[in-house]
Amino acid sequence: MSADGSRRVSGMVLSSMPVGETDKRIVLLTREEGLISAFVRGGRRQGSSMLASSTPFAFGVFDVYIGRSSVTVHSASIDNYFTEIREDIDLVWYGTYFLEIAEYYGLEGADETERLNLLYVTLSALGKGIMDPDLIRWIYELRTWAVGGEYPNVYSCTGCGREEELSFFSPSAGGSICRECHDSGVDADPISDSCLYAIRYIIATPLNRLYSFKLTEEVRVELIDLLKRWKNRYVSHRFKSEEFLKFAGKGE
Ligand SMILES: [Zn+2]
Questions:
Q1: How far apart are CA 138 and CA 198, in angstroms?
Q2: Which residues are near ligand 1, the ion (C-beta closer than 5 Å)?
Q3: Of 81, 96, 117, which closes a domain?
Q4: 119 and 53 share one domain
Q5: For residue range 185-220, what is the model confidence (pLDDT) as tens digits?
């Protein structure tokens, strides 16, 4: 984190925890300073200007003081509370999970502009109902892996490096397998061209177009199944809100 002093950062509240009677500790994902854990004096007091602006999903500009051992939020100007998510209990399950993912992968003191933008377009798509929440969820997870640089290789065969006939996929091999390697005994499942292109699109398209494509039901099922298997293999962390999502009978 930068040296002591007052700063203006733009970002989003990811989580909030009560401290004492009237205060809060929040986690912010910011462009300028990455993840920040900050103290909000009076953040739970009725009538406090910080009450609403220090709740999860609040996105805007925060004036913080960065001290040697702690950060304090003084004031905030909120552009978007994502009310359409907060007022729909089904969407809250998903949205809370998305925030937890951002908090888990977010880094302190790093430029987190891309992760913050990804979260913003994802919550916007969720709130507007642009796609079904489960598909949004898996697109968001894949793009999160891509932001972190650990995603399936869908551009060349992980066995021999060929870029043609990538019609098989193996999570354990790290991605695509070509027909030749498969025929010579590499264990992999078939993948459709549409599914392969969807994965490439999600990994690399500009964020403002991330949620503007369509899939047939068949490809949707194939994509989600593949990403689930990838996640089972490479993501060992258990997310609390993912358990809630399952408990609520949501989430594929
Ligand atoms: Zn090959």
A1: 12
A2: 157, 159-160, 162, 178, 181
A3: 81
A4: no
A5: 999 999 999 999 999 999 999 999 999 999 999 999
Alpha-carbon span 182 to 90, nearest angstrom: 42
Is residue 141 domain-shared with residue 223, that is, in the same domain? yes
Distance between Cα 159 and ligand 1 center (Å): 5
Residue 170 alpha carbon to ligand 1 centre in Å: 12
Q: Is the pTM here over 0.85, yes or no?
A: yes
Whether 76 and 95 map to the same domain: the answer is: no
Structure tokens at 208: 């403002």
Domain co-membership, 120 together with 184 = yes
pLDDT band, residue 46 (cuts 50/70/90): confident
Quote the domain boundaries for residue 93.
Answer: 88-252
Neighbours of 128 (CB within 10 A): 11
Q: What's the gap in Å between 3 CA and the centre of ligand 1?
A: 51
Nearest to 51 by CA among 29, 24, 85, 86: 24
Indicate whether 69 and 189 sit together in one domain. no
Alpha-carbon distance 179 to 194, whole Å? 16
**Mean pLDDT score of the chain:** 94
Q: With the C-alpha atoms ordered 176, 178, 179, 182, is the resulting torsion angle positive or negative?
A: negative
Query: In the chain, how many domains are there?
Result: 2
pLDDT tens digit sequence for 75-114: 999 999 999 999 999 999 999 999 999 999 999 999 999 9
